[in-house]
Sequence to fold (87 residues):
Amino acid sequence: QAASPEIGLIVCDCGMPNASGLDLLKRVRADGRFKKMPFLLLTIESEGKEAAEAAKAGVDANMLKPFTPDLIKKNLEETFKKAASRL
Fold:
């Protein structure tokens, strides 16, 4: 609830124990304080049910694993561009 320094980006893996990255995305988007937070989801699939559900839940970008520095840069740019459009 109170982070110091403030959080400016969430990068989350889809496959986590106890809860998925998709679950976290839904919780973040449901909380008015974090609704506009840039959210990048790390995943092993670019299409399919999980990707469609993430898009519906408001993910800014999905980044496929394994990734390269160029892919990280591209996805971060996409994430911040999409998040800025919500402001």
